[in-house]
Specification:
The protein is mainly alpha-helical. The protein has a single domain, classed as Orthogonal Bundle (Arc Repressor Mutant, subunit A), CATH 1.10.10.10. The two termini are about 35 Å apart. Strands 1-2 form a two-stranded antiparallel sheet.
């Protein structure tokens, strides 16, 4: 194998390793969130849905699905479980009565606060010992990766 081919292979291996590590980080974060939110009676996916509702209070299920990167069917299951749990209420949209709008209850707002503390603790542990300059560089690299994939998807 030539030096050029070997360097190209090593570069590909390094990129694959980076992608694998990103996935592992996501899985670890999600697992820790699930574990720490379990005593509250919710999953990380439900908490993420609550955050999306908080950020966009007058949002349809389809819009929430896109914001949470889940299918519309999964979003409906999450919304129903949050409604049954008393964390949200859903009412018909004034313009289109086929759309149900989700709103946080007081119980949902308290759960968001608890979850935010959990997330901050996980993030603090994740970024321990990593300088801000490295985080900025990583963000630029990841943004470029997203742009590359989004262009390729169309």
């Amino acid at each position: 194998m030539s030096t050029v081919a070997r360097n190209e292979k090593n570069g590909q291996d390094g990129r694959r390793l980076a992608a694998q590590r990103m996935k592992r980080i996501l899985l670890h974060c999600r697992g820790q969130m699930d574990e720490r939110l379990r005593p509250e009676g919710v999953t990380a996916a439900q908490w993420v849905m609550l955050r999306a509702i908080e950020r966009e209070p007058v949002t349809s299920g389809a819009q929430l699905a896109r914001a949470c990167h889940v299918t519309p069917q999964s979003a409906q299951v999450l919304l129903k479980s949050l409604e049954v749990g008393g964390w949200i209420v859903r009412t018909k949209d004034m313009v289109n009565d086929r759309i149900l709008i989700a709103k946080l209850t007081l119980r949902g707002e308290k759960l968001l606060e608890t979850g935010e503390k959990v997330v901050r603790g996980i993030e603090k542990k994740l970024w321990e010992g990593i300088p801000e300059s490295a985080v900025e560089s990583l963000n630029k690299t990841l943004e470029r990766c997203l742009e590359n994939l989004e262009v390729g998807a169309s």
